[in-house]
Prior knowledge:
Number of strands: 5
Order of helices and strands: EEEHHEHEH
Structural class: alpha+beta
Low-confidence stretches: none
Mean pLDDT: 84
Strand order of the largest sheet: 1-2-3
Largest sheet: 3 strands, antiparallel
Strand content: 15-25%
Helix content: 25-40%
Shape: elongated
Distance between the termini: 38 Å
Amino acid sequence: MLHVRGDGCTMDDGSPVSDSVAAQIAPDAFLRALIHDAAGNPVDASPRRRVPTDRQKRVVKERDRHCVDCGSTALLEYDHVPPYELSGQTVTSELQLRCAPCHRRRHRSDAA
């Protein structure tokens, strides 16, 4: 995945990509737009379903970029905060990126 922003282009892992390379691959690429507000935050989407949509996942990944607990970029999962069972909705403002170990740890401590 290639991110094209006003401050430059990067791969999903943060590796920089030159504007010329992005321009070369754009004509043959599958493009998806992620809209940001004036403060640079991804715009929320809020369908009522348990599993986040692809768009919601992109918004949360753009916002958090790594595990909110330990900073890892591996094995990332989308966690509902508060739990889906309480809110009954899946909105980006209630989703956080957590790596699998931190996600499991959080839910074990919630159950205790």
